[in-house]
Write a structure and sequence with these properties.
The protein has 136 residues and is α/β, with parallel strands linked by helices. The protein has seven helices and five strands, in the order E-H-H-E-H-E-H-E-H-E-H-H.
Length: 136
């Protein structure tokens, strides 16, 4: 499964802690992240992460492009709802694309833990079927 990991500045520590806690599950998947978030994850874990630009520099749009091409299976985006972001339009577009293409989107720790535990159980079997049909 292809999983995007994104975190606003105030949530980066939470994302790092999340990836440390769930490293045994995440290591089995292809991980993508926006710039600084990916760097911090790789520094704190043994996870390999394909990094894009930081969110304000287009990273959210790059991940959104993968969603639009049906090349992403899950997005975990620890948002900071209490701080205005200079790229709110990009964030909204990414979330809209996840809805349009039925990509699971966790925007907080509670939903991310449910998704990861579901992933561990194989609950996203329908995504695997899509990949198999495409020969991926």
């Amino acid at each position: 499964m292809k999983i995007a990991l994104i975190a606003h500045d105030a949530k980066k520590k939470m994302m790092v802690d999340f990836t440390i806690a769930y490293e045994p599950i995440l290591i089995e998947h292809e991980l993508y992240a926006t710039g600084t978030t990916g760097k911090k994850i790789m520094e704190a874990t043994n996870l390999q992460v394909i990094r894009y630009q930081s969110g304000p520099l287009g990273g959210d749009q790059e991940i959104g492009s993968m969603v639009a091409k049906n090349q992403m299976d899950m997005v975990i985006f620890f948002r900071d709802p209490l701080t205005a972001q200079p790229h709110d339009v990009d964030i909204s577009a990414l979330m809209r694309l996840c809805d349009v293409y039925d990509i699971p989107l966790a925007t907080n720790l509670a939903s991310a833990e449910i998704f990861i535990n579901g992933l561990k159980r194989g609950d996203l079997h329908w995504r695997k079927i899509i990949h198999e049909r495409r020969g991926e």
